[in-house]
Design goal:
- The complex is a heterodimer.
- Chain A contains 17 helices and no strands.
- Chain A is an all-alpha fold.
- Chain B folds into two domains: 187 residues, D-Maltodextrin-Binding Protein, domain 2 (3-Layer(aba) Sandwich); 222 residues, D-Maltodextrin-Binding Protein, domain 2 (3-Layer(aba) Sandwich), CATH 3.40.190.
- Classes of the chains: A mainly alpha, B alpha/beta.
- At the A-B interface, helix 4, helix 11 and helix 16 of A face helix 1, helix 3, helix 4 and helix 20 of B.
- Chain B: Keywords: Signal.
């Protein structure tokens, strides 16, 4: 079967005098080329629409382009000046730290752990309960980001729902978005993104065969032991995929923070995407802003590589 | 089965987001599509600023009937000034979206002319008989670095302190108040805070979200009352480490740390400008506000009409820091109409500008938007002079007023002033640290060679 296919694919004429090994190699190359051929439109599109803009952004980050003024038309090539300036800027490091805190607490811990918790809970819960909880959580996820951002702004603002409820119970009103801006956006992002993790884990949990659990139960394992010793290792691949997706998603969160706090007060909730936007469009330093965006891109890539290495999805 | 479903959802989500991105990028095009029969006009409109929209709509009708076959497309951008600048710059960056006629702040003219967004109008102005009616300061406002004219001024403005006489009486302050120093202003604010609880003693703009109003109505009203300038016009260098800069930030620190200004959530709101003029002042929630001459324009008629303003509000010139000569200070700016560099028919665009700023329309805009007239025939027109009792006061500030150093870098420097001010207002930096951060940013923008240490 395979042999005949090979013969058919071969471009060399039968009975050619060429030596056997090179002929085989030629066949392999031809076969690879034949397989790549249908992919070329996709690769070309990726090149034009993905690699192209990334390359252009990289180039942009090496110039001092601005939004208006002389350097809007004739930017100079400044090499890695933007990057050296970035690395020596206090605002950048503060922003990087805020981004790290935001991603770790709202995505890695918040969305991920809460999503798993809800998935386990829903699996065990009676049908109507799981249906209602599922609908509520997914509702937050289905909402477009800008709508969710407005809703959360209304919730946390000084005259908002949260303070109204607090006052109902005799509490005093708190300026959440001013006094605890980072906490507010972290909670908002958890609220918005948990549904995604819950769905991923819900699907993964359904794949765990119940017999394994029953066997462990008979052997005397408690619920926690069963979860950590059996369920978690078995859904490890889903955990790795989910962590990666959730982290990258959260790294790029802009609308939510922009609407709720605009990165403020001061710079207390300015994560890297907001800093890039502010430098590029508010302070009109497009080149410098692009450099920040590029660094954010690299941070995302590092996270992705770490996940792949640490939680290497083994084939079971 | 389950896994396949997840994969399906993920694929759908990706497709959807790609589709949305595609819509987003195509949505912006198609405004200045090179149609020489249509003049596109981009300008700002907000809930409290509709006067320009009225005048341009009127001018559109006049222009279209005078030029059969031509059309005017009005494209108001409904946002506060700061977002307007960003959106305008992005529109100007692409030939496809660049408008033909642009409503432009005077401080952006040099910058946008240098970027090649604006077309020089000297040729057309030569043939316009009305041009001789514009006073010289107004003509200066439209000049680019190359000495060519890039805009026709619509009016100018000055700034001062508005104070609520009713609240002042309750606080035991004189109702014909005239502060001589910054301390007088702070003393009055402290008296209001003590005797009239529940009102904002003094509003001074201090947020990044406020944009240019923070630089101009706020910081520069203080800075230009000190002995130090921002920019040395003789050496053409920007000043670092000046005492006046630090002292101005110190004023902010006093106001906000003593609770004499608005609370933080109000102070940092991007719509504070509209709130102050349309609700907070008319409702008697602000005792003093440092603001521009255009405010009464919103109270005269329209949605925000407030007939009682004349009895309620008093005006006082902004004092210099320690009362030194000339005793008071003000800032002036103003907006212009410019022709876009990518306009396919520049003469048509200019014709629309000259229609919008003929005597009749300039008078309508000058009175309704409370502008200080820049056309001599409007400034002396009895209809203008008798229209609004605040005109006399705000025009009297012209001798002590200042213009911003409108170098092509000014808008970037102004943004860094806003950063410095906000960090003091929110208490995240001391005035000294904020001034130091500004100096560093300044050197980053203009280069070390274009700065000098203040003496």
């Amino acid at each position: 079967m395979t042999v005949s296919t090979l013969e058919l694919d071969s471009s060399a004429p039968r009975g050619s005098s060429a030596p056997l090994r090179p002929r085989g190699r030629g066949k392999d190359a031809a076969r690879t080329a034949g397989r790549l051929l249908p992919l070329t439109p996709a690769i070309a599109l990726m090149g034009v629409f993905l690699a192209g803009p990334i390359g252009y952004a990289l180039y942009g980050s090496l110039t001092n382009a601005t939004l208006s003024g002389y350097r809007a038309v004739n930017p100079d090539f400044v090499g890695i000046d933007n990057y050296t300036r970035l690395l020596s800027s206090g605002a950048f490091w503060q922003s990087a730290l805020l981004t790290l805190v935001f991603v770790l607490t709202s995505a890695v811990i918040g969305q991920n752990a809460l999503g798993m918790f809800l998935a386990v809970l829903i699996e065990k819960a009676p049908k109507p309960v799981s249906g209602v909880v599922g609908a509520l959580v997914v509702g937050a996820w289905v909402m477009p980001e800008i709508v969710a951002a407005f809703a959360l702004y209304a919730f946390f603002s000084t005259n908002g729902t949260l303070n109204a409820v607090l006052q109902l119970f005799g509490g005093s009103s708190v300026t959440w978005l001013i006094s605890f801006p980072l906490l507010a956006v972290i909670l908002a992002n958890i609220w918005r993104g948990t549904a995604f993790s819950m769905m991923v884990y819900g699907a993964a949990l359904a794949e765990v065969p119940p017999e394994v659990h029953e066997a462990a139960q008979i052997d005397g394992a408690g619920p926690l032991q069963r979860f950590f010793r059996i369920t978690l290792p078995m859904v490890r691949r889903a955990v790795a995929t989910n962590m990666m997706l959730v982290t990258l998603q959260t790294l790029g969160v802009f609308t939510l923070i922009w609407v709720m706090t605009a990165g403020g007060p001061g710079t207390r909730s300015t994560t890297l995407p907001l800093l890039a936007f502010q430098e590029a469009f508010k302070l009109s330093q497009v080149g410098y802003g692009t450099a920040i965006a590029t660094v954010t891109l690299m941070v995302g890539a590092i996270f992705a590589v770490v996940y792949v290495k640490v939680l290497k999805p083994e084939v079971d | 089965m389950q896994r396949r479903r997840i994969a399906g959802i993920a694929a759908a989500a990706v497709t959807l987001s790609l589709a949305m991105t595609a819509c987003g990028s195509s949505g912006g095009s198609g405004s200045g599509d090179g149609d020489s029969k249509t003049v596109t006009v981009v300008y700002q409109k907000t809930a409290s600023f509709t006067q320009l929209d009225d005048v341009l709509t009127k001018a559109k009708g006049e222009y279209e009937s005078a030029h059969p076959g031509m059309k005017v497309e009005l494209k108001p951008i409904e946002s506060e000034a700061d977002q307007y600048f960003t959106k305008l710059a992005l529109m100007n960056k692409s030939k496809d979206t660049a408008p033909d006629v642009i409503y432009e702040d005077s401080f952006q003219v040099r910058s946008d002319a240098a970027a090649g967004y604006l077309a020089p109008m000297d040729e057309q102005l030569k043939g316009w008989s009305d041009w001789s009616q514009f006073d010289d300061t107004a003509k200066q406002a439209g000049l680019g670095d190359d000495g060519k004219t890039y805009g026709v001024s619509m009016g100018t403005d000055t700034r001062a302190i508005y104070y609520n006489k009713t609240l002042f009486a309750q606080a035991g302050l004189p109702t014909d108040w005239k502060p001589k120093t910054w301390d007088d202003v702070l003393t009055a604010a402290r008296a209001v805070k003590e005797k009239v609880p529940g009102v904002i003693p003094l509003n001074i703009y201090g947020s990044k979200a406020g944009g240019e109003q923070t630089s101009m109505q706020g910081f520069e009203m203080l800075m230009y009352g000190t002995k130090d300038p921002l920019y040395d016009t003789s050496s053409k260098k920007w000043l670092t480490g000046s005492k006046g800069f630090g002292d101005s930030l110190g004023f902010y620190k006093t106001v906000f740390s003593e609770g004499l200004g608005p609370s933080q959530d109000v102070a940092l709101d991007s719509t504070l400008g509209s709130q102050i003029s349309t609700t907070l002042i008319p409702q008697g929630k602000v005792a003093m506000a440092i603001d521009g001459s255009w405010l009464p324009g919103q109270w005269l008629k329209g949605d925000n009409a407030w007939p009682q303003w004349q009895e309620t509000m008093g005006f006082a010139p902004m004092p210099t820091q320690d009362g030194s000569a000339p005793g008071s200070t003000s800032m002036s700016g103003g907006w212009l109409l410019s022709v876009g560099a990518n306009a396919p028919d520049k003469q048509a665009a200019f014709d629309f500008v000259s229609t919008a700023l003929n005597k009749e329309n300039a008078l309508k805009y000058g009175t309704e938007a409370s502008q200080i007239a820049v056309r001599k025939d409007v400034a002396t027109d009895p209809a203008y002079l008798s229209y609004n009792p605040s005109f006399e006061f705000f025009s009297s500030l012209v001798p002590v007023t200042h213009f911003r150093p409108a170098t092509p870098d000014y808008s970037q420097i102004s943004s860094n002033i806003q950063v410095a001010v906000e960090s003091v207002v929110t208490g995240s930096s001391s005035p000294a640290d904020a001034a130091k951060a500004y100096d560093e940013a300044l050197v980053g923008i203009v280069g070390k060679d274009n700065t000098q240490a203040a003496s």
